[in-house]
Amino acid sequence: MAAPLAIHPLGLYRRRAVPLRQAFLLILSGVLGALGATADPPPVAPRPGAVYQLAPGDTLRDLATRCLGGAEYLPELMAYNHIVNPLLVADGTFIAIPGEERAAALAAIAAAQAACQEARDAAAMTYALAEAEAAAVALASANLARNRAAYADARAAAQTALEKALLAKRLADERAPVQEGGLLTAVFGEVRIAPPGGTPAVRAAAGDAVPVGAAVVTGADSRAEVALADGSVVQVLPNSRLDLTHYLRDRRDNRRESALGVTAGAILGKIRPRGTRESTYKVHTREVTIGIRGTDLRVDAGRDEVVRLAVLTGQAEYQARKTTLTVPTNHGTFGQGDGAPADPIALLPPPDIVSPAGTDMTTAHQCYAFAWDAIPSPRFAAFHFELALDAAFITTVEDVLTRAWQHRTKPLADGEYYWRIASVDSKGLEGRARGGKLTVRRQLEVAFAAERPPLVRGDVWVIGPGNRIEAVPTTADTSVVRMEADVGGETSWTFWEPKARFGFPNAGEFSLHVFGTDALGVRGPRVGQKVIVDLTPPLATARLAQAQAGPDGTARVEVILEARDSAGIARLEYRLQGHVLPYTGPFLVPAARLRQLSYQAEDGVGNATAWITPPAAP
User: Fold this and answer.
1) Alpha-carbon 291 to chain mean position
2) What is the DSSP letter of 595?
3) How far apart are CA 53 and CA 43, in angstroms?
4) Is 233 helix (H, G, I), strand (E, B) or coil?
5) In DSSP terms, which residues pair with 463 in a beta bridge?
6) Burial tier of 376 (Cβ tally within 10 Å: 0-12, 13-18, 19+)
7) Which 3 state secondary structure label does DSSP give 295?
């Protein structure tokens, strides 16, 4: 009969020591070990799936530690071997070690545990609570089944836990608030992005992402446009800094918490209306917080430590020193540092435009002259005129503050331009702008013209004395600002106006060439004209017939005038008794008055004879 079992402090169960021979042998082995004898090696753990026979001194706890990985797996080992009462386990008992089925269950449980941890990291306990709790329950069931050595049940429960955890994570990812960055949609000049974490700013380009925590920094004469996740658009003006401080969206109900920072310079913002009542949108300067509710606004924190807020449309709240001031549409306010803001002030309207007459103008004038009416307000300080290549006014061509009622642009190349003008009051608050589109189309065509119509012979003009030739633009709306001309390719002139004039003191044949030049130095087509200067008057003669007596007995002479010239005869006339009459054919003159008769001819280019007195009558 087997000896009774007793509780042992180093193992769960141990048989009582009985035979004296065995005790002697144990003492002897200890002595030999102390004398340097080699002890037996530690027992080797049985392989998974093997069957192990308990040897004297073995305990189930030790076997669970060696085979299953820890003493905590003792209940599992007992369940696997259907051991209900460990007091009945004796030396020599065969113990089965779980094999592949346990390994598969453990792998499934490990995968489920990893998925559950990922779900917890994704805040599934907040945003997918039901699914996360179902995953936890299934994982607990898997561990209980493993503890019972019900490995098939453990695998099934672990698979359920895995599926529930993956679903919980996916739902949490879809529902949990997310920080949404912006996108640089336009860049002009020196623009940099300062990444989050204080790393050095890098040169920016259109299309670059602006993550939350980053800042957009513009240099002098530079601008940038940032499109934000909710559809809002912010323009960063020159010498400014915009921080994308916070842009959180709760994907369960689209509630947003948005915050921008303007620590230098100014911004123009078109902020979309809040999607929910709980959503917030704020712009922070160093001392002031501005709450926004679907607003077009201008925030300026870059001059003389004064924060200026102009609400073009919508509404905003100016908060400083626990003072909150509501600013309605078309009003503005300002405050020194963190001081209380001034009461809302109505923004000045834009001026009425005199030139151009409409909002859409096409012209060849490269230095276009804009003109507008004055603003009859004692608060008026200046007009703000802007000209840009894009409707968002990012790629600016001119940005001018002026008190004048007009502005002439610098020379503009061919293209489409957008302009706007706003009024600025004495507090620096800028109101709404009025503007339009200006299209410049270069026109450099020029042509020749004569003061008096020339005689045209093919491609040659024949002119007479005093007739000047001019080269002028073909249209009144022209880009020509000066003319370059030459005669015969040798003598050249520059006319510092859109007109070239040629005079000819001498007769001869001349070859004229001219081209127009615009304000940017671009030359137009070169045109030419051949000119013959004729300074020879026509040949004019008078023939007198024999004097004959008239009915009253007075002697009369018949006069016949003739004139010839290669340029043709434009005029042939005679003068008698102070009267000048055109010659239309032979006429009779009293012989006594013949000495008072004279005649003159002019050719087709203006050469005229002197007044000629005919010879005496035959």
Assistant:
1) 25
2) G
3) 12
4) strand
5) 533
6) exposed
7) strand
The full DSSP string for 54-94 is PPTT--HHHHHHHHHSSGGGHHHHHHHTT-S-GGG--TT-E
What amino acid occupies position 435?
G
- Amino acid identity for residue 81 in this structure: N
Q: Is the pLDDT of residue 39 over 50?
A: no
305 vs 33, higher pLDDT: 305
Structure token pair of residue 278: 């709980």
Q: Which helix (H) or strand (E) holds 96?
A: strand 94-96
Q: Give the pLDDT mean for 152-179.
A: 90
**What does the pLDDT look like over 350-365, one tens digit per residue?**
999 999 988 899 999 9
CB-CB neighbours of 514 under 10 Å: 26
Query: Which residues are bridge partners to 514 per DSSP?
Result: 485, 527
Query: Using H for helix, E for strand and C for coil, what is the string for 351-390?
Result: CCEEECCCCEEEECCCCCEEEECCCCCCCEEEEEEEEECC
Phi, psi dihedrals of residue 454, rounded to the nearest 5° = -80, 165
What stretch of H or E contains 21?
helix 20-34
Lowest mean pLDDT among 93-97, 291-295, 333-337, 576-580: 291-295
- Rg, the chain, Cα only: 54
Rounded CA separation 449/185 (Å): 52
Q: At what angle do helices 100-121 and 129-147 cross, to 10 degrees?
A: 160
- 510 near 581, Cβ under 8 Å? no
Residue by residue, DSSP assigns 438-464 as EEE-----EEEEESSPPEEETTEEEE-
Map 462-486 to HEC letters: EECCCCCEEEEECCCCCCCCEEEEE
Written as six digits, the tokens of 124 are 């599934």
Q: What is the pLDDT of residues 403-413, one digit of tens each?
A: 999 999 999 99
Residue 396: beta bridge partners?
Answer: 388
Backbone angles phi, psi at 561, to 5 degrees: -100, 145
Where helices occur in 42-197 by DSSP H, the ranges are: 60-68, 74-80, 100-121, 124-127, 129-147, 151-175
DSSP character string of 396-412: EEEEEEESSSEEEPPP-
Rounded to whole angstroms, how far apart are CA atoms 191 and 206?
A: 10
Cβ neighbour number for residue 509 with a 10 Å cutoff? 11
What tokens appear for 97 in the block? 């070690």
CA distance 477 to 87: 115
Rounded Cα gap, residues 562 and 545, in angstroms: 14
The predicted model gives 196-213 an average pLDDT of 91
The 3-state DSSP class for residue 296 equals strand
59 Cβ partners below 8 Å, 6+ apart? Answer: 8, 11, 12, 13, 14
Peptide linkage before 356 cis (omega within 30 of 0) = yes
User: Counting Cβ atoms within 10 Å, is residue 200 exposed (0-12), middle (13-18) or buried (19+)?
Assistant: exposed
Confirm if 602 and 534 have CB atoms less than 8 A apart: no
CB 266 within 8 A of CB 384: no
Residues of the chain by 3-state class (helix, strand, coil), percent to 5: 20, 40, 40
